[in-house]
Amino acid sequence: MGPLQIKDILQTSPENQSVTVKGWVRTKRESKNAIFIALNDGSTIHNIQAVAEPGQFSAELLSTVTTGSCLKITGQLVESQGSGQAVEVKIDDILVYGTADPESFPLQPKKHSLEFLREIAHLRPRTNTFSAILRIRHALAFAVHQYFNDGGFFYLHTPVITASDAEGAGEMFRVTTLDLNKLPRTEEGAINFKEDFFGREANLTVSGQLEGELGAMALSKIYTFGPTFRAENSNTTRHLAEFWMIEPEMAFFELEDNMNLAEDFVKKVITYALIHCKDDLNFLQNRLAEEDKNKPQNERSIPLLEKLSFVVDNPFERLTYTEAIEILLKSKPHKEKKFQYPVGWGIDLSSEHERYLVEKHFKKPVILTNYPKEIKSFYMKLDEDGKTVRAMDVLFPGIGEIIGGSQREEDYDKLLGRVKEVGIDPENLWWYLETRKFGTAPHSGFGLGFERLVLFVTGMSNIRDVIPFPRYPKSAEF
Ligand code: 4AD
Q: Which residues lie closer than 8 Å to 418 by C-beta, 6 or more apart?
């Protein structure tokens, strides 16, 4: 499995045994009696301290040991004299794999702003904050697969390139090999996509759901976990142009089962992080507490671990869209005209409304159901009243919508009616509609935005900081 990692060495009992550590220098400190090098290899938030004696190494060599340089250190693992750590390495030898000129290396041992770090996304994983986020992101992804595998779900790989706008979920990114300077034209002058790679228009997917449903109609319980693309011009702290979505789809599940699954699922993956990412979560909690020091008392957030435990330990509030509108109509901000957007049955709830319900009224995650059909996708199952659909959105404090899902319309005629009503050409969806002709079944599913989950768990405030290389309008540098 390769050389021992710093995470493991820090757990080893020191018996003057010979060890080799490899990693990047976080800091170097020289005192009269010793030279201290803090080394980190990303396996843990903790550095290992390596100690040399003054004069043991040439000034020339030591001048190349600077923040950001990469070293191989061999020495003996001894009990640490200092208070910060249990073990340290008494250095015998240093090999410098790569130097990092302090004049030009942008990461120095001081606090950098998140905005600045976004400009150096190629280096930011070497900071404590980003390495912690990336380890937590990994743990959550692993927990997602584990949860579904244990629950009898099959991981279905739905296509990234699609010829249908599944949802009408937003603007799509076009995929083409046509020469944009010399577009082939039809006799009528339109672009002739027959000459394009797929012989038709193609785009990057906005959701794997429709193909996911095909899988569920054979394997009963499937999930997808893949990249998703939306070309909306949403410059917010909650939107990315490329994000990862987890979409389970289950035959024989009704809305209630769907809600139960969604709630259990998010609670279990958050619990996984609480158990397996303690050091990183503690680090991020302290980071947030530091930031909060400059804020007035009433704007300070509850400690991160407390917030996560609260979500795991308490049932989510469940209510219908209609009930939510009633609460909003009776609310103080509505009466005092403090909401920016009007409230009334039929509106698409805006983030201020969702936040009021979650953060002020219920003070816990909320699942809203049975939305008006006009503001939801065509595939959602119509309620008996013909006005609302069996939709469910899970709303989280500080995040807003983290999950969107529904029971699906399994009746062929009703589905075809909705397809036509919203202006989709049924021919484009013939394969989807056929599932309702051949052995249709009640089924449900939902989509969890993975980055919104990571955002919640890490307590970060901008979604661009929880994905290694964010894609958003005017930004695809790295
Ligand atoms: O509510 P949405 O659009 O639902 C769907 O795509 C359905 N096909 C899901 C399903 O039923 N299988 O998106 C689902 C979730 C949202 O709740 C949100 O967490 C996330 O995806 N999401 C985004 N995350 C980051 N950036 C964006 N631009 C996002 N758009 C949606």
A: 373, 378, 379, 382, 409
Tell whether the model's pLDDT for residue 26 goes beyond 90.
yes
Is 475 a domain residue?
Answer: no
End position of a domain, from candidates 82, 109, 136? 109
Nearest residue by C-alpha to atom 28 in ligand 1: 239
In a domain, residue 117? The reply is no
CATH code at position 16:
2.40.50.140
Tell me the whole-structure pTM to 2 decimals: 0.96
> Residue 92 pLDDT > 60, yes or no?
yes
Q: Could you list the residue range(s) of the whole structural domain that residue 324 is in?
A: 126-171+206-465
CB 303 within 8 A of CB 291: no
Residues framing ligand 1 (Cβ under 6 A): 167, 169, 207, 209, 230, 234, 239-240, 243, 245, 247, 401-405, 445-447, 449, 451-452
Going from the Cα of 218 to the center of ligand 1, the distance in angstroms, rounded, reads: 24
Nearest CA to ligand 1 atom 20: 449
* Residue 168 Ramachandran class (φ > 0 left, ψ -120 to 50 alpha, else beta): left
- Let me know whether 239 and 338 are in one domain: yes
